[in-house]
Specification:
Blueprint lengths: L11 H8 L2 H12 L8 E3 L3 E2 L9 E2 L2 E5 L4 E7 L6 H14 L24 E7 L11 E5 L13 E7 L14 H11 L15 H9 L6 H27 L1 H22 L4 H8 L3 H5 L2
Parallel strand pairs: 5-6, 6-8
Antiparallel strand pairs: 1-4, 2-3, 4-5, 7-8
Length: 292
């Protein structure tokens, strides 16, 4: 087999290698949202937004970006089907909207508290899916927003979700791609198998930078070691789906993922990776890793 040229962008490492770059993210958001004005700056915020109380559950995003005007973009790569995924999207968006709540600023003259008028800044959820959305008709790209059922009127354009289903591009000829989103998704779905330059660089110049960012040959040994560990984990996740059919959904999923996590953790430990990093990549706790 020809030597692998690019990282798999569906892994955590590969995804952040590309979309963790502000120029790449800016170009993607502009193509996705067809913005009338250029995004001036994107700040990558903390990956985890902790709950307000110890009893609450933390919310984790792959990337949480904020523009200069305060608009927020949750950008996530979801590798496998998850129960209640639609509700999970709603939860993520709701938390980012609720985080804007203000108790009111003091008026300088009266010193009285002013009421917050609920004029929220836009929050958009962008979800790359390595599967077709369960219980919905397969669709490459969909926009989800608040709409009045009877009239089709948009209630607000401040909260939206976008799903992008990558399996639609497995085996799809590149000459059937017609839109800017087609060009992005085709490259993401097929990059790991490519041995030539990325497609459609004449349609989207930032693909030249993505190609450079994704070249395995340009990475340090530490970067390549981390990538191949995460690639093993990605394959474990995909293989676990086979266990589900053989052993039953829950039992198969749990068994397949557990064995895969242990296998990846052992390899990372032998390579000398820090236990905290191994725990972050695999989801195992430090005690389990120490016993390997």
């Amino acid at each position: 087999m020809d030597k692998i040229r690019y990282v798999n962008p569906l892994t955590d490492f590969g995804f952040k290698k590309n979309f963790g770059d502000a120029e790449v993210m800016k170009a993607f958001l502009t193509d996705l949202l067809e913005l009338s004005s250029e995004i001036k700056e994107i700040t990558h915020l903390d990956k985890e937004r902790l709950a307000e109380t110890q009893m609450g559950r933390g919310v984790v995003f792959d990337l949480l970006c904020e523009t200069m005007d305060g608009s927020r973009f949750i950008v996530e790569m979801q590798k496998r089907k998850q129960k209640h995924f639609a509700e999970r999207m709603v939860f993520y968006l709701s938390r980012e909207v609720a985080s804007q709540a203000k108790s009111g600023d003091a008026d300088e003259e009266t010193k009285e508290r002013k009421e917050w008028d609920y004029n929220i800044l836009p929050v958009y959820g962008i979800f790359f899916l390595d599967f077709h959305l369960p219980d919905f008709q397969p669709k490459t790209f969909r926009t989800i927003e608040f709409i009045v059922k009877e009239t089709g009127e948009v209630l607000t354009d401040k909260v939206k979700a976008f799903t992008l289903e990558l399996p639609s591009y497995n085996g799809k000829p590149d000459n059937e791609c017609r839109t800017q989103i087609d060009y992005w998704l085709y490259n993401l779905a097929n990059m790991e198998k490519m041995r030539t330059d990325l497609k459609f660089k004449d349609k989207q110049p930032v693909f030249e930078k993505m190609q450079t960012l994704s070249e395995l040959s340009a990475m340090t040994k530490a970067e390549s070691d981390q990538y191949f560990m995460e690639q093993d984990y990605y394959r474990t996740i995909k293989n676990a789906e086979g266990y589900e059919y053989e052993l039953g959904e829950k039992k198969g999923r749990d068994e397949g993922l557990k064995q895969g996590k242990l296998s990846v953790a052992k390899k990372m430990k032998l390579k000398g990776f820090d236990i905290a990093l191994i725990a972050d990549v695999t989801g195992l706790n430090a005690e389990e890793i120490s016993k390997l």
